[in-house]
Amino acid sequence: MIATGQSFEQTIADFVDRRQSRLIELARGLIRIPSENTPPSGAERACQEYIAEVLRASGWQPELYDITEVKGLAQHPLFQPGRDYGNRPNLGARRKGTGGGRSLVLSGHIDTVPRGTQPWTRDAFGGEVDGNRVYGRGSNDMKAGVAMNLFIAESLSELGLHLAGDLIFETVIDEEFGGVNGTLAGRLRGFNGDAAVIAEPSFLRICPAQRGGRTAHITFRAPGGVLTEGGFPGQVVQQLTHFLSQVPAFAAARRQKAHVHELYARHEDPVPVSITKIFTSPWGTREPITIPEECKVEFFWQLMPGEAQEDVEREFQEWLDGVVQSAPSLFSEGPEVTFPIRWMPGSAILKSEPLVRELAACAQEVLGAEPPIVGIEGPCDMFVFHQAFSIPAVLWGPRGGNTHAADEYVEIDSLVAAAKTLMLFVCRWCGPTSLD
Q1: Is 203 helix (H, G, I), strand (E, B) or coil?
Q2: pLDDT, tens digit, for every residue of 203-223?
């Protein structure tokens, strides 16, 4: 109930403050249930069942569904074959409004990247709280964001809140490693609305844009083996050295050629180029000392909204061909290139969209300052909403660190602020609202 002289907005803020322990509990509960994506398979079911239980206890009727049974999924142009979806359900739920309001989707992916082999100083699935941080795999990307959405879904009943428009809650599988089939399935299943907020860790910024991304696996080959009388073969290492020396030129050309979208105008490098892995052979004394015959490089470069796949890939191939042609004595054969992850386009909606403006107004009330409206620094599944279903969507979530790395964490105070903002926005967007 609203206290005498208290505004509706203050009631919402006070409620989140009083119940922030529940918000943290939900985040820790999700972190403690591993839901690693290890393509082509994954292990999201247990986490989805946990979420379904919370929703049922709050009067929702969640649907766990096999995405391979979604009509039209396999035939959709964005569908990417080659994944195993056995025992990996999507979750969707709709809370019908009283009528006359706008509908809203609260979306999030429940899968995380694997724990990995990097050394953790915390239990990767412990949900440990230390000061202002909650640690664990997926804490920042994006179980804290899912917990925020789940907290709001649960709180409607506790507050006796009635919304005029429908509120849709979903957690999708297989977003990591470029797997957006779960997000696509949610749209085809009908869990859609007039707008969507995706709970990626936006660091309390409103992000109506995402970069695109292209990942290439490049394999260099040349004779190797043990030391010989003629000296060191070592040609693969020389190929790698020459290749790495040319990467800055590719990065500089990207910065010069790419048309910088306005939402990335303040980013230091709008279209970064990265070497994410280099591999020649297993490490350690259980392996012989030998000159490698093969070297694999994972090469990742990012794109602006509006860049076309054929242009991006042609630009890359022309550069790589030039690298080989500039050192013909090193390359008896050209490197092999494969693309292990789907094409991820950049995408954006206008800052003038009502979704962006109204969410920004709510954030300003909660944070006491105007929130930045910028593009996020990487690819994600938002383009499916924008480009395939014409649903305005933004990214909104808390701040954290070590994302995809060891000792990943989310900051508690930012999670509370993100939840206050989103709760207020849900009420205004889907309103008018009333309290029992």
Answers
A1: coil
A2: 999 999 999 999 999 999 988
- Phi, psi for 33 (deg, rounded to 5): -110, 105
pTM: 0.94
Could you tell me which residues come within 8 angstroms of residue 270 by beta carbon, excluding any fewer than 6 positions away? 255, 258, 260, 261, 264, 304
303-327 pLDDT, tens digit per residue, is 999 999 999 999 999 999 999 999 9
Task: Please give the Cα distance from 131 to 81 (Å, whole number).
Answer: 43
Taking every pair of Cα atoms in the chain, the longest distance, rounded to a whole number of angstroms, is 92
Residue 287 to residues 262, 282, 373: CA-CA distances in angstroms? 51, 7, 51
| Residue that the structure tokens 């109930």 belong to | 1
Residue 64, beta-bridge partner list:
91
What is the per-residue pLDDT for 3? 46
Residues 6+ apart with CB under 8 A from 433: 8, 161, 162, 163, 164, 427
Quote the mean pLDDT of the chain. 94
What b/e string do you get for 415-433 counting C-beta neighbours within 10 Å, with b at 16 or more? bbbbbbbbbbbbbbbbbeb
Q: pLDDT at residue 233 above 80? A: no
As a whole number of angstroms, the distance between CA 238 and CA 228 comes to 17
The DSSP code sequence of 48-66 is HHHHHHHHHHTT---EEE-
